[in-house]
Amino acid sequence: MESSPSAILKLLVPKAPFILKTALWSMFSLSDTSSKWDLRTELTVKILRDMLSPTSPTHSISATQKLTTRDPGVKGKVWVSRVKLAAAEDDARQLVFAAIEEMGTGEEQWTKPATAPLEGEWNGYRASARDDAGEPEGMSEQTKYDHMVQETSSKVTVLYFHGGAMYLLDPATYRTGCARLAKETGGRVFSTRYRLSPQNPFPAALLDCFTAYLSLLHPPPDAPHAPIPAAEIVFAGDSAGGMCCTALLQLLLHLHRRSPAGEIPTVTFHNRTVPIPLPAGLALASPWLDVTRSLPSIENLTQYDYLPPPSRAQHTVYPPCDAWPAVPERADLYCEGSALCHPLVSPLAALDWTGAPPVFFSVGEEMLRDEGAVLAQRMARQGVRVVWREFEAMPHVFAMMLEHLAGSAVHHEETGRFCRDVVAGGKGVQSSGEVIAAKTLERRSVDVGTGLTRIGDEEAAAFMQKGRERIEARMRRGEGSASAEGRPLI
Question: What is the pLDDT at residue 8?
């Protein structure tokens, strides 16, 4: 969005009384969050919450996309090497389609997207650059990539999927965060550009994520990088990017399950038959795992979050545009109502995670907390090594929103350590759970197999079914074609 001083001033001046009241209540410890938050956090979260309140939006979906996908440019200690690779042949596409059908109930409706070129960018930490440095002039994308690799100190390659509710944001808006991740891991980050909904509904984004992984493993001739072993690749993502990570992992697990015992599945990719191994691990930040938004924390943990829950946002109506309402009508921005509970749409619906690599969860005391807890506990009970870090009183993707907090530094350090450890062989990664206090950062251990939630698999499935019914009923009332149930930053 526009971030010039005049634009920011224009936005904040009408909110001056609200800002003053929030500051005074925090300073005199009169707010319900002042015992957990400092003044800066109080102002940031509550201003965001006020801005995202479920009033009628003034921007359409397509206008909002245009605002949130602007390239902010390159500034500071970050390498950026942009990539656009030619589309592959049809085999990977058909493999995804077959998995969707095999993993579904048969009642799901979905469109079959075409293949598309892979776009994204390599990001790395540029240690010698000033904080206000621009992009190096006169360098080709290949030269910038080569310089980035020279600054790495580990074998870690992070395949990063950005957040934004599957319809907002762009890899370019994540450059600072990806550079921080590269610094913490000592490695490099490939931030992929997946096709956004509602123009490109499920499974377009999943196909793009699958293509990105195959392109790291088996680069086409126009790629800047050499083949990267799967044991050196970690999937990472925040919010909806966490959904991309887990949906892609579930796709890979399905391909492995359907292959003969002991054999790795293969695919024809850029005229070669290549294997599809599993990655070294997953690192998830506030993952969005349930597109129905139906588990209890969505309504019960709003105190520390800024996102509007369904009860306050279900009648949010966007001005019509070419992107939305969809033609023909669709119940959700991302998918058809019949597909909301498909395991590759909402990974929380996937019941079998056996054989998965280690998974790191970093969550706040946020609206999406229950989704992560149910999935993490399910994975741990199935023998997956799960590292759970829960940060008291923190909102959705807090480390990105509240960089000044000591807890945010802990998040980055823990994420970096996990990525380094799984790429080093993973032997040092053991299941563990910790809840980290808001101000003192004191740690309390929790059992990841039994102590994260009392919500069982059947109960979670029932919540999701009710959520699907809520969304489909909204469409039947004539609201589904224009509303998006207020999930602006997930």
Answer: 46
Cα(224)–Cα(146) distance, integer angstroms? 8
Residues 34, 122 within the same domain: no
pLDDT one-digit tens code per residue, 394-413: 999 999 999 999 999 999 99
Q: Is the pLDDT of residue 25 over 80?
A: no
Q: Which of 347, 356, 350, 343 is nearest to 253 (CA)?
A: 356
131 in the same domain as 49: no
β-bridge pairing 266-269 and 272-275? antiparallel
User: Does 418 share its domain with 463?
Assistant: yes
Report the distance separating Cα 230 and Cα 426, nearest Å.
13
Instruction: Say what the pLDDT of residue 313 is.
Output: 72
Residue 285 and residue 241: Cα distance in Å, rounded? 9
Looking at the structure, do residues 129 and 158 belong to the same domain, yes or no?
yes
User: How much helix, strand and coil, in percent to the nearest 5, is found in the chain?
Assistant: 40, 15, 50
Structural contact between residues 307 and 367, judged by C-beta atoms closer than 8 angstroms: yes
Per the CB < 8 A criterion, the answer to whether 333 and 167 are in contact is yes
pLDDT tens profile 109-157: 999 999 999 999 999 999 999 999 999 999 999 999 999 999 999 999 9
Find the distance separating the first CA and the last CA of the chain, reported in whole Å.
16
What is the pLDDT averaged over residues 356-382? 98
- Residue 461 in any domain: the answer is yes
Answer yes or no: do 50 and 91 share one domain.
Answer: no
Range of the domain at 50: 5-64
Q: Which of these three, 21, 42, 64, is where a domain ends?
A: 64
What Å distances lie between residue 23 and 38, 117, 305, 410, CA to CA?
Answer: 10, 48, 18, 26
CA dihedral 158, 246, 65, 292 (to 10 degrees): -160
Q: pTM for the full model? A: 0.95
For 154, other C-beta atoms within 10 Å of its C-beta total 16
Domain count, the chain: 2
Mean pLDDT of the chain: 92
